[in-house]
What we know:
heterotrimer, A: alpha+beta, 21 strands, C: mainly alpha, two-stranded antiparallel ribbon
Amino acid sequence: MVDYSGKGITKILAIILEVSHVHHRPFIIKSALATAALLVLALAGSSASSAAGSAALAPYDAKKAGGTLTLVAQAAAGTLDPKVNYTAEFWQLYQASYDGLLTFSYGSGATTFNVVPDLAQALPTVTNGGKTLTFKLRKGIKFSDGKPVTVADVKASFERIFKVSSPTAGSFYNGIVGADVCLKTPATCKLDKGVVVDAATNTVIINIIAPDDSILSKLAVPHAVINPASAPSKDAGTTIIPTTGAYMFKSYDPNKSLVMVRNPYFKEWNHDAQPQAYADQILYKFGITPTAQVTAVENNQANWAFDPIPADRLNEIGTKFPNQVHINPLTAMYYLPMNVNLAPFNNLKARQAVSYAIDRANMVKIFGGSQLATPVCSFLPPNFPGHVDYCGYTKGATPAKPAKAWAAPDLELAKKLVKESGTAGQAVGIVVSDDDVNKQLGVYLQSVLTSIGYKATVKPISGNIQFTYIQNTKNKVQISVTPWYQDYPAASDFLDVLLGCASFTPNSDSSINMAGYCNKALDAKMSKAKALGVTDPVAANKLWGEIDQEVMADAPVAVAFTPKQLDFISAGTKNYLFSLQYKMFVSQLIVK
Amino acid sequence: MLGFILRRISAMLFVLTSISILVFLIFFATPGVDPAARIAGRNADQEVLAQVRHSFELDKPLPFRFFSMMRHLFISQDLTSYVNRGAKVIPQLTQAIPATLSLVIGAAIIWLAMGIFFGIKAASSTKKWIDPTIGFIGIIGISLPVYWLGEVVNLITQSKLHSSVFKWVPPLGYVGITDNPFQWFLHLLFPWLTLAVLYAGIYVRVLRNEIRVVMGEDYIKTERAKGASEKRILYKHATRMSLITLVSLFGLDFGALVGGYALLTEVVFGIQGVGKLTFDSLQNFDLPVIMATVMYASFFVVFMNAIVDVLYAVLDPRVRRV
Amino acid sequence: MSSFKESSKAIFSESPGKIALRSLRKDKRSKISLAILGVIIFLSFSAPIYSHYIAHTNPFVSTLDATVSVNGIAKPVLEPSTTGLGLGITPIGPTWNITGYFIGADSQGRDVLARLFYGGRSTLLIGISAGLLCLLLSLLIGVISGYHRGWIDAILSRVLDIIWAFPVYLLAISLSVVLLTSGLKIGVIHIGPGSFALPIFIIGIVYIPYVARPIRAQVLALRESDFVRAAVGTGARSSTIIFREILPNILPSMMVFVPIIVALSMLTESALSFLSIGVQPPAASWGTIINDGLGLLYTRPMVGIAPGLLIALTAAALNLYGDAVRDALDPKSRTRGD
């Protein structure tokens, strides 16, 4: 061989200098799912420019239709199959393209948590003690390939949930009669008893094994939309499935772009469920960094940026383009699960010390300031069913004698608790996602935990695996930072899902109870609250409020703050409307 | 000679196979990358998780998965992504190639032009200050971290001065040459310059030193004694000889860059080329795409390596023995 | 291999090392670059003194609530926006006051200048250690490969090929996940999470082909040279030949590699810091500070620009010194007429 590399020594410069960095989206799936029945609260939009309050959707104005709506994002959201995709990015698009028997209403404010009939003529008739739901399918609706929507498609669509191993197959739809068999042998899934259809009368009867207080919401989310019976019985991936709504998908390349155009067979049947769209076409461009997205919107090269606005651009858009900024509350939280099965957080005092020590106002600062987040320490977010305003871990309060709201950290008490727990000096690793905000939160926590007596280190890992990494007990994660966004506005979606015994599976990447907290007594109480919810939601929510306080006395997690959604749209983009369920309504944006 | 080429090819295959095995093993040794839970979605039921794992053959033993992946990649060529299910890997790669080629060829023209011009200038100029000045600028070129330079360029052209001097600079991204040649040029102008800075620095230095070395050789002295003009000596002999070195260096650099080593320039400027694809797949832990891009990149590196070796062997028969 | 020919010829006159050293001492470039490096090293290693006695700050602790006195007025280090919608929080910019926040704060409210000094320590430490590790390993591989030839050479060459073409990023990202949490255990060697040993190890290995190959080629050529053949003929032991005849002859080219490889290692360290591998927060290196600064590029560009300039300056000084060393050892490449 030859010595060419003596001269080529500098070649490595090229290779090495080319190693790099990019901000990327955290993997966390931000989705929302809701029931109107339970939402007895005013979720006033604190939007900077859009009107607050709750209202129905205004009538369609055909004069304003036309144009191309350009959306930009750092990355695509994976498969386009509405039965598999579980991301806010694409659920937002599905609302304007796919339809289920039911859906969440268009409009503004709390209205958008209402479940309304979509492909069904009306909300179902409920009989058999809540176990039988009878729907009547609308007639005359066609898929975007021209074929009519039939009850056979409905049945096939429910079976398809299991055939494609939809992420929620085992959690949302396991109550359908016959689902247990389908979960075991998806390939041959038949729901002959669970989804009974009659083509002559156009009826669909859904039988569930037990009453479920959130069944309507579960039938309204994209995983329950109606696809043609001919849709592939495996994840369709990047191939396109015909739609029924205002838009249909034209092309999808996850590394480049997604194009949606008007569905030629679409005629409005329920203005609240699937209204006519304004823009003729939606062009979703991928591979654009968050900061380039902001620039593109500022320069009118895009109508809206998907990714969170980088911290160093916030002041700029808030100052130069205040009328293009919309801020809305989210029912979500950033929290710190502490592994209750691993030292030092197998010690109650150690966990409480962390809860007292973190300065939630500082964490809000890192997130972007008080306009974009609010410190909290209750488990159920504000404006959420069951939420009670209380804080057991603020200066001068105890879990037994809570204050009304969080005010200041109590470092002295925290240090004392650490000393008493006998865990002082132990090593603690904080596993965070390596995007800017989460890494900064981790660095801040490292500083706090060090100051109360631990040997803390922060471990930022790729945001694409952090969420599954911190779930697996094999990885021995002691403490981490992670957000949680509601699936549906029911306390069970927070308390039961995140801290129930059933959500803890050792050695599995899917074990959402990251704290590994399993309190049998509280678990029983949660089951009681769930059962109560079917008949008496108000009493159930009161019970959930009590459970919240009891759980937090045990401090398996420390809640930090509840974030808000900021949308930045271009100057020419009008008619911004926010859905609590799917965030901004893309089909209602006017670009002409 | 034939024996040498055959040996070189078998060595290439050995290296590529080793790399593919290493990549595969490293991937599955990394905790948290098991794609099943990420594909299955948050809070997926354990049964659903098992189904997903089965559908991706993740419940099969490692060697089986390795051979299955290689079969899908090279034989049936229908390997699909772990993250964007159904997205075939090979079309993703082939679609990314034009962007990378545009970036690399454009930058190469700039750095070769600058490298050759200033390299010759530095080696031949009679003015005392020219050589050290060019040498100094060359050193700056090779000392700037590319990702940092790219971000600073973006800061200036996209933000600080975007409303005045750089109003004409389009947003980040890539426009195909067939879509709009002018926009293609505008979009790539700063990425070209940024990438070219480093290589221009390298090539100036290499060429200048080579020319200097050749100028000191005995036969040049003979030429000079024979009365050949300085210009003739410089271009006809010294530069021509030195360019041989430069061409082999260029072969290696070009191979690596086309293979995706312009990764950071692509990421910083949002150009959807092979490097960006590699980077994104690494960020996503999308093994099929990682495997395809790594194989592609290492093929180019190893291939250009072999070409240069063979060329040297042609020029210098002694090499063949070792 | 001109340097080798040159030095073997010179064996009988003055020692080549002495000639080289003399011309290096005269070289202006070496004076300038050593001065720059000296200042940078001095500042880096005086980091604790600066932060403790001058800036009175601990740059490894988040101080989101801190205030700083600017022209007698106490200002918060992290200023919430007061214009428009009041969105976002901006760290304080340069105060140009050496007693605190001279070039501003980062997102955690920490003094960037103090972090730059500390960061220089990490970057230099990793750069120099990785560079030396690489040279040592390369020397070992190059000499064994070139001297023994045959199947040992064949195997080592393939290993070099693999390292050459292996995707560094994949290795870095994967290792970072493994190592961050548990550290790495290879036999008795234990690399703790967040240890500097990790980036040193990775960078040291990545560069081996670039140094080992030319060394191997030189050793191969030396192996065929008359004086080595003569030594082999007299029945001298391999180790004797390697130490007496071969090593002294490849030393000059090794010397040329030192500054270049250290510069490269430093640049690589900064790049790897982006991949969350190596220097872990809250510790700092110039690479991690650039990374922090990229998140502030639009409001406080100085945080990202300053460490980039320092890296460039240090790398340039090293490369300049490398040029001077090369010319001192190999006078042919210098200007005509010298």
